[in-house]
Amino acid sequence: FAISTFISNNLDSKNVDPPVFNLGQTFEVSSPLTPLVFVLSPGVDPRTTLLQLANQRGMGDRFRTLALGQGQEALASRLLEEGMRDGTWVFLANCHLMLSWMANLEKIVENLPSRSPHPEFRLWLSSSPHPQFPISILQRSIKITTEPPRGIKQNLQRLYNLINEGNFSKTRAQPQKYKRLLFALCFFHSILLERRKFLTLGWNTPYDFNDSDFQVSETLLSTYLDEYEETPWDALKYLVAELNYGGRVTDRWDIRLLGVYIKSLFTPDALTAPRFFLSSLSTYFIPEDGTLQSYKEYINTLPLVDKPEAFGQHPNADIASQIEDASSLLDSLLSMQPRIVTGAGMTPEEKVLILIGDLLKRVPEDIDIAEASRVKAENPTNPMYTVLLHEIGRYNSLLRTVRNSLLELQKGIKGLSVMSIELDEMLSYLYDGKVPPIWQKMYPSLKPLASWVLDLIARVDQMKAWAEGRVPKVFWLGGFTFPTGFLTAVLQLSARINNVSVDAMTWEFVILKEQTHDITQGPKEGVYISGLYLEGAGWDIHKQCLVEPNPMQLEVQMPLVYFKPVEAKKKVVQEGREMYVCPTYMYPVRTGTRERPSFVLSVELDEGSEKAEYWTKRGTALLLSNGK
């Protein structure tokens, strides 16, 4: 908000207020020789708007569209040839999905003047921003982009503008039921789009839901209401949330969130309650039955800025997203600052040399793997020591990488060796206080350089103490490069002790009231775990359950947790206690990478006075490591 105000006051408000989009005006300045390129924004599909324009211009039956993808090269070329000859409009969507054919399209566009196409021919393209999209096409074309609507109100307005009076009020078997559920569907679509602003508290993976998802769901809704006298709730919820919208969703915890939302909106109360509230706020409800215009008038009364509670979120979620936006802005400003110093003061190279000297002093020596190997030989059947050896090997490899790269950079700065591209990149990262990518291959982290070094020292200390025979009474799970391997070893050890299959074992989680210094010895089976952070909720130490976090409290450090291996059939279900299945991730980026998923396991936590669906909407999760 401060940046927008600053720009408005010092430049002009038009630089922060997007202009009203009018595709008809854009078409007026086009020609058969000038392609029109839609630069796609998340959640925006220009096809519907373009089809409306084609109908207005009498080109509805001469409008050809093709979604590009593998194997569509010949068809796209044929459509272009027919369009230039017969004067049709050709819309090639999603050019970024067929970059291998863009060189051919580039030649076709270059040769348009010599081909003398039909006067009514128009070439429409759409593409997400991509560095490999041909520059020459962009230079010759009219670029069109629309910012996606921001907020629930603008999304509802846009969706209701897509609905005409004929479709809204045409004869249906159950018109009132259709209108109420249509509003719930529009709210559902708007919520899914706007949750992205909460980052990982919104979605583990951001998804590009668009108008086609809504239109298919609306068709399903009207069809099923016409076909069945009694509303088929289960079928509608499955088809809309899991099959249609869920077809884009790749994360199982995001699928769970979709189910929670659709369950709260598609319910018999939505048809019978005079004011069926769509969130915990009284602002959002399904209005009284009326005309299409009456629904639009109600939407116009909604607030322009949405409170987090409208999404089932805590006000802290807004703070987290604003911090992320501010950090992104500052990183961009930092990347543009000059690297050349004139006059007095140290150069960046001199500052980095001092930093290298300090880091070389602080980076620990390699862990003695020989002692750990000896202990492993004494306990050949204990899988815990196999994990220890693997962890020591990885940390020693990382420590050598850190030291060697620092020494190489030191030589390069002093002119004793050639500065490679990799070393120059490393210099920039160290100067900005960031962790070089070469150091992050062993385990993921979002910590800045200073915190990352302290974290590395603590990780090595845990492994070094264990290698020397001092088995930790409390294990810091975030200190493992592969925590899932460690937990599997704990299950294997317990399975061997009890002479059962490891596949029959599962976890029971006990939250302890004791502090780490109160623990004098480890448990007979399982492990005590420390260092877990709770995101999206608070924790009541006395009642041992989830509660609301305090204002500005973005993360809460959890008490010690006893990870107790038990046979699945013997797991105790505590009566009177409802549990929230809480996903646990290695670090704040919940998707991780293709090579290293961030998800570790799910932990059962007492949901307290609220239901599990409440915490699902909050995006409540455990982290092994934060970004501080």
Description of the structure:
This protein is an alpha/beta fold and 628 residues long. Helices cover 45% and strands 12% of the residues. Strands 2-3-4-1-5 form a five-stranded parallel beta sheet, with helices on both faces. The protein has a five-stranded mixed beta sheet with strand order 14-11-18-16-17, with helices on one face. Strand 6 (276-277) and strand 7 (285-286) form a beta hairpin. 29% of the residues are buried.
Question: Keywords for this structure?
Answer:
628 residues, alpha/beta, five-stranded mixed sheet, 18 strands
Low-confidence stretches: none
Structural class: alpha/beta
Mean pLDDT across every amino acid position: 89
Helix content: 40-55%
Radius of gyration over C-alpha positions, nearest whole angstrom? 30 Å
What characterizes the major β-sheet?
5 strands, parallel
Brief account:
45% of the residues lie in helices and 12% in strands.
List the helices and strands and how they pair.
Layout: H1 2-10, H2 23-28, E1 36-39, H3 47-56, E2 63-67, H4 73-86, E3 89-93, H5 102-110, H6 112-115, E4 122-127, H7 135-140, E5 142-144, H8 152-161, H9 165-169, H10 175-194, H11 211-227, H12 233-244, H13 252-265, H14 269-272, E6 276-277, E7 285-286, H15 292-300, H16 315-335, H17 348-362, H18 369-378, H19 383-414, H20 421-431, H21 449-467, E8 474-476, H22 483-498, E9 505-511, E10 527-530, E11 533-535, E12 538-540, E13 545-547, E14 555-557, E15 561-567, E16 579-585, E17 599-606, H23 612-618, E18 621-623
Parallel strand pairs: 1-4, 1-5, 2-3, 3-4, 8-10, 16-18
Antiparallel strand pairs: 6-7, 9-15, 10-15, 11-14, 11-18, 12-13, 16-17
